[in-house]
Amino acid sequence: MTKEELLNKKEYCFDDLVSIIKILRAPNGCPWDAEQTHQSIRRDLLEETYELIEGIDKDDADIMREELGDVLLQVVFHADIAKSEKRFTIDDVCDDICKKLIVRHPHVFGDVTVSGTENVLANWDKIKRETKKQQSDTEDLRSITPSLPALMRADKLGKKARKMGFDFDDANDAMTKVYEEVDEVKDAIANGTQEQIEEEFGDLLLSVVNAARLAGVDSEQALYNANEKFLARFQKVETICKASGKTLSESTREEKEGFWQESKKNQ
User: Fold this and answer.
1) Neighbours of 89 (CB within 10 A)
2) Where would a tag sit more exposed on the chain, N or C end, judged by fewer CB atoms within 10 A?
């Protein structure tokens, strides 16, 4: 597809996006696009993904449509970089995912019978482990990418470990570990090194994620909601503070606590 042909089109498709990226990264295209590497645009992919998540959280079709396009742009961009390095192409990417979907849905593309969603997920995990040639449960656990947000990764590790029979009985059982870790954090703060304090806080966070998971709570979403609640309350605190004729920095700790309690009453 040439530049002239693209300019004369009224509607575009996936192949046109591939052509546009190819043109942008060509010798006579855009210098910035031509200079990019997988590492240089890595952050862009993360940012676009989170912007898409925001659209999903808001259930805003316009934002989702735009941000899905931005994420798709990043996919095609990375594939074109790989093509220029003679590593793989966007067609290879599409071929791989199509083959993966067919292999992992034998109840649709094969003769396997399933009884429901739980059966489907069990088959998916089994096939995934076989295709990745994972020989141990540890390899299976390590397949969960460390690039995930830590809370999300901890939740996924816990869920996978549970399938292997390695978990607490229930949320109440997991909470005993939370209380134990709280005591260890207190002791580390009082007597330990900074490294020990960090380690104990990590253990506490992991135990909280496990307890939340067993209570049916998504830790990542719960913390997101808590952040939003804090921001809403902080805004009310600031409003109440200004009404008293002071700024937050001028207020005493006791006054700030009073503003905070008042903000909670009004929510």
Assistant:
1) 14
2) C
